């Protein structure tokens, strides 16, 4: 017996937004919530970028391209808010605002690119399967 592959329902926008906020917060907490000296180490920024990349891809896949805004806003806010809170509390010059602007620009551009590329890959995969894509259950005979 064959079963037609029904597309899975996309996660609601609020779920994607919440998960994206968690991704941004985890990226900040794991890599940017502490420093070894005056500046962040290369490995800290790289680790944060990897978490942002993988987490953004995950939330885009869960949303199936329907709530890209939630990924962009959630990851950006989830990382920028705690970073700003920490930076503002330790900066006496007010230059943390320059860092915030650069952080927001980098996060917005990177998450937009990630969501666009992920959405394009998902559409390609869906199209390549075609409308008559059939999946077989494990253990079923193909005859």
Automatic annotation (TrEMBL):
Keyword Transmembrane helix in record: yes
Listed transmembrane segments: 12-34, 40-61, 68-85, 97-122
Protein name, as recorded: SPW repeat-containing protein
Lineage: superkingdom: Bacteria
Keywords for this protein: Membrane, Transmembrane, Transmembrane helix
Lineage: Bacteria, Bacillati, Actinomycetota, Actinomycetes, Micrococcales
């Amino acid at each position: 017996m064959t079963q037609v592959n029904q597309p899975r329902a996309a996660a609601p926008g609020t779920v994607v937004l919440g998960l994206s906020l968690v991704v941004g917060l985890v990226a900040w907490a794991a890599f940017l919530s502490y420093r070894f000296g005056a500046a962040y180490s290369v490995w800290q920024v790289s680790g944060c970028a990897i978490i942002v990349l993988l987490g953004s891809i995950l939330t885009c896949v869960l949303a199936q391209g329907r709530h890209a805004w939630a990924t962009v806003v959630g990851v950006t806010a989830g990382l920028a808010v705690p970073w700003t809170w920490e930076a503002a509390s330790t900066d006496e010059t007010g230059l943390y605002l320059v860092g915030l602007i650069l952080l927001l620009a980098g996060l917005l551009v990177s998450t937009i690119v990630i969501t666009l590329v992920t959405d394009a890959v998902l559409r390609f995969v869906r199209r390549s399967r075609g409308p008559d894509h059939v999946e077989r259950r494990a253990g079923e005979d193909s005859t």
